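[recover] target loaded
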């Protein structure tokens, strides 16, 4: 059953004052499904940056990587995020590598950044349940996709840790349950924009 707006969500909608919510984390961590559920509860719009990039490019992410390279994808990703940041009352599921570009943090910091910190083993099991999922992930086209996921986590953890809110879903959590937990924790993540730190340096390890 999809999440539906509830009177109990009204206080957090008021506290957010239109701020966008940005979901970050590794590929396969459930950002899109969770983002949909949160958007329904808050009566916000929902966007998925990868889906928008595919529409703009007229090709799948896998094809974009193969034909145009990762640099082109990252440029489109930055442009897409910048355009979304001009809106309010949106929930945005981002690509796993969006944290790698320093300029992206200027847009992310305009809203509330939520890290879905799902263990690599759990993500791998989820992706392996549908082989087509692995085929659609350019960075997992290796003999050992799980090792590739581990490497990505090691490279990006210091960036994901800059999020305003970190949530570690339980293996049995549905997207609606994760949305419940995020909405309950959001008040602790809200702070004055002037208190937000400078964008992190993606090159730091």
């Amino acid at each position: 059953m999809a999440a539906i707006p509830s009177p109990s969500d009204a206080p957090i909608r008021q506290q957010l004052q239109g701020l966008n919510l940005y979901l970050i984390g590794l590929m396969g961590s459930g950002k899109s499904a969770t983002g949909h559920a949160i958007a329904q509860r808050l009566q916000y719009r929902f966007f998925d940056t990868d889906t928008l990039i595919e529409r703009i490019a007229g090709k799948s992410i896998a094809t974009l990587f193969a034909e145009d390279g990762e640099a082109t994808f990252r440029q489109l990703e930055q442009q897409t995020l910048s355009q979304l940041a001009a809106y309010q009352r949106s929930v945005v599921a981002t690509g796993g590598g969006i944290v790698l570009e320093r300029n992206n943090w200027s847009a992310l910091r305009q809203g509330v950044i939520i890290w879905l910190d799902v263990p690599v083993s759990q993500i791998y099991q989820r992706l392996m349940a549908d082989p087509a999922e692995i085929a659609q992930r350019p960075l997992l086209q290796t003999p050992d996709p799980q090792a590739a996921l581990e490497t990505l986590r090691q490279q990006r953890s210091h960036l994901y840790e800059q999020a305003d809110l970190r949530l570690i879903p339980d293996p049995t959590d549905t997207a609606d349950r994760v949305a419940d937990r995020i909405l309950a924790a959001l008040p602790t993540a809200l702070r004055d924009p002037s208190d937000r730190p400078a964008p992190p340096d993606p090159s730091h390890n």
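[recover] notes: The chain has one domain: 7-191.
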